[in-house]
Each structure stands twice: as structure tokens, then as C-alpha cells.
Amino acid sequence: MDKSRKGNLLIMRFSDGEDLLAVMKQALLDENIRSGIVLGGVGMVRNTGLSFYKGRGEYETVPVATESELCSLNGNVSRFEDDIIIHLHAVIGRPGGDALAGHLSAATVNMTAEVAVLVSQVELVRKEDPETGLKTLGFGQGG
Amino acid sequence: MDKSRKGNLLIMRFSDGEDLLAVMKQALLDENIRSGIVLGGVGMVRNTGLSFYKGRGEYETVPVATESELCSLNGNVSRFEDDIIIHLHAVIGRPGGDALAGHLSAATVNMTAEVAVLVSQVELVRKEDPETGLKTLGFGQGG
Amino acid sequence: MDKSRKGNLLIMRFSDGEDLLAVMKQALLDENIRSGIVLGGVGMVRNTGLSFYKGRGEYETVPVATESELCSLNGNVSRFEDDIIIHLHAVIGRPGGDALAGHLSAATVNMTAEVAVLVSQVELVRKEDPETGLKTLGFGQGG
């Protein structure tokens, strides 16, 4: 992963074989970014996990082992306790054109992927909701 | 719906059962935002309406009653006469992974949804085109 | 195509029959934008080409002749030698709701399309990788 930042814009270029979520998280920690909006992502992925919320903190995951185009990435970066959470939903395209979409729970970069993050001055903070098991998004005192 | 704004960035967190389009419109009016770019949206929706333009102001709508992941939200906020219009296209993921996409004409928030809007200094103004029935995007004198 | 720019935000409204990629490229050249992030795109397209990377610089393209909703546009603008490259991945919705996704290699605007680009202070520069045939994204000295 190679990255460059100017002001509130961080752009990352991932390399083949990288764990998209893990490497992106480390890049954000290195940049000390705890609140951000993912502006988009394009490239290719394999070993993708697309998850669907089933309630009470449980997800059902559809694994997509084969190479797919990463066509859309929406989501955000927020603080959770002493950690950060990258919350991403993705749309991927299969050879032939069929699109799959869901909560992105896993992805290995295939060849390359390019992701842009806007650093947010609105402070994003998650807290676990005991009723639903979701880590609900809220706003910090700076927000 | 809870929201926080800093400068030109507005972030909204919607709650279960809210009408996404109506509550978002009220939030934008409360913030006096009449021109904006929707940077993205993630969460879950139900009772979704995905519409396809058929010409002469008419849309054909595909209703999706069941719970789906909201995976992509693109679009903008503009002024139309004395009102504002939120123009959104969405991609949703069904359990199993299949993606549906279209003009978002309706959506009830399921559990939660998170949407980011960039306030635009380019003034966005729509005017109705009598020939097509479309409210065509244009730019104000400030733009 | 009509466009308006304020600071680092460029908004374009395309008209029926325009070649989305060619007209967008000319608009960016006219604005002297060589590095940018595509924040999103909505509207309708026809004669769409969705491509999938097969390795060694080769793509397999799925043509979609019929009118579709343009529901998501992710990607970026970068410099390549003396030229610029617009790298876009799109999600389109067919009547009935089915979504297709891929690298956007062609699209004719149907009725209208609206695209927003954030000018990037991070300098984006591509260089051809002789091994993969990909024009890999990198960052300029200004980045």
C-alpha cells in the first residue's frame, strides 16, 4: 500500500494480495485519522466477504472467492473505545457483469485497488447498543 | 435522526423506521443546505422503491419490501422553485448478495443508516423541462 | 455538457447523446484538472461498456445497449504522460432492478447525467507496469 495525503484528503493505492480492511486500518492509524468518510474505491478484489445483518450482532456472510471488480465503496471511519472501525459497504462486479452488494467483511486486493478518504472534522464515535448488538454511530463533543 | 455538521460536511445517522428521504430533506432544510453532493450512504433499508425513468416524467417503480443492505448512495441536493430536491440513486444488496439498483423513490430505514453530504458552493438549481418532464439540473448565478 | 466549479468542486450536467467519458475528459482538461476524485454520478446511460480485467492489459467487455439508470460512479482522474486518464467503475440498474457493475469503458448519456468531481491536491500520476499492463496509480512529488 502506498498513500499520499494533502489536507483532509487521503488517497491509498493497495497492492496485490493485501488484506484491504487490515492494511487500510493501519494506514488510517498511521495518519492518526479517527473520523473520515470513504469517498470511493475502485480496483479488483478476491476472497471477498459480503455480509448481511441478521439482528443481535449476527451477520450472514456470502463468500466470493473469485476475482471481481470493486465498483463502489461507501462508508466511514469512526472511533470505538480505544480503536477505530472502518465501516464499508461494497458493490462488486463479476465477469459477465452481475453485481453483488453487501457489508464488506473481507477482501483481498487483486492486482490493485484505489481508495479515497475525506478526513472528517465531524467527530465520529461508535457505541455498542446492547439491544441490537450494533455499534451505533454517534458524534463526539467536537462534532 | 441525529446529525452533526462541521464546515461543509454534514453527517446524519438515521434510526429504525424513519422515512429516509423525508427525514433527510427536513435535516437539510434545518441546516439551510440547498446545494450539496451526497458522498455516500450505508446501513439497511426496507420498503425500498427503485425507479426507472420511462420518459415524459413517468417512472416505473420496483418495490423491495424486505430488508436489504444499503450499499451505495449517489446524488445531490438542489433548489427547485421554493423547495429543495434530493436526487438519489441507490444500490442495495439482498440476503444472498444479489444487488439491485435504481433511482431511490422510497426507503424506510431498517435498524440504522449513515449518510454524508458535502455542502456545495456550486449553486444547484433545477428547472422543469416541458419536453421531457425532467427537472433538469442547472447552476445558479452563484455557480 | 454544462458545468460549474467553485474552489475544489466541479459539477457537470451531461446531455442526451453525449459520450460520457470523452466529454468529461474534455471538461477536465478545460478546467486544467489533472488530479481528482469522482464523488459520484447519477442519471441514465445507454450503449454502456462494463469491462473486467483479464490480465496483461486485456479487458473483457460486456456491452449493455439498452437504457439503464446510472446508480454509482467511483473513481479518479490522474495524469499519465502528457495526458489524463479518467478511471471509473460504475453500477447501473436495468428496468426491473437488476444491477450490473464493472470498469466503465463506454457510456452514452441517456436524457441526462450528473457527475461531481473533487479536485485533489494529492497529485495522482499513473505509470505503466510492464509486467501487468496496468497503468498503476502513484503520487507526484507534490503529493
Helices and strands in order:
The structure is a homotrimer of 143-residue chains.
Chain A lengths: L1 E5 L2 E7 L4 H11 L5 E20 L2 E7 L3 E13 L2 E11 L5 E21 L4 E5 L6 E5 L4
Parallel strand pairs in A: 5-8
Antiparallel strand pairs in A: 1-2, 2-7, 3-4, 3-5, 3-7, 5-6, 6-7, 8-9
Explained architecture:
The structure is a homotrimer. The first copy, chain A, is mainly β. The first copy, chain A, has one domain: 60s Ribosomal Protein L30, Chain: A (2-Layer Sandwich), CATH 3.30.1330.80. The first copy, chain A, has one helix and nine strands; from the N terminus they run ββαβββββββ. In chain A, strands 1, 2, 3, 4, 5, 6, 7, 8 and 9 form a nine-stranded mixed β-sheet that branches. The longest helix of chain A has 11 residues. The first copy, chain A, is globular and about 45 Å long. The termini of chain A are far apart. Chains in contact: A-B, A-C, B-C. At the A-B interface, β3, β4, β5, β6 and β7 of A face β1, β2, β3, β5 and β6 of B.
Q: Which chains share the greatest interface?
A: A-B, 38 and 33 residues
Number of domains of chain A: 1
Q: Tally of extended strands of chain A?
A: 9
Portion of residues within helices of chain A: under 10%
- The oligomeric state is homotrimer
Q: Superfamily at the CATH H level of chain A?
A: Hypothetical protein, similar to alpha- acetolactate decarboxylase, domain 2
Helical element count of chain A? 1
Proportion of beta-strand residues of chain A? over 45%
What would CATH call the architecture of chain A? 2-Layer Sandwich
Estimated structural class of chain A: mainly beta
For the termini of chain A, the CA-CA separation is 31 Å
The major pleated sheet of chain A works out as: 9 strands, mixed
CATH topology of chain A: 60s Ribosomal Protein L30, Chain: A
Low-confidence runs of chain A? none
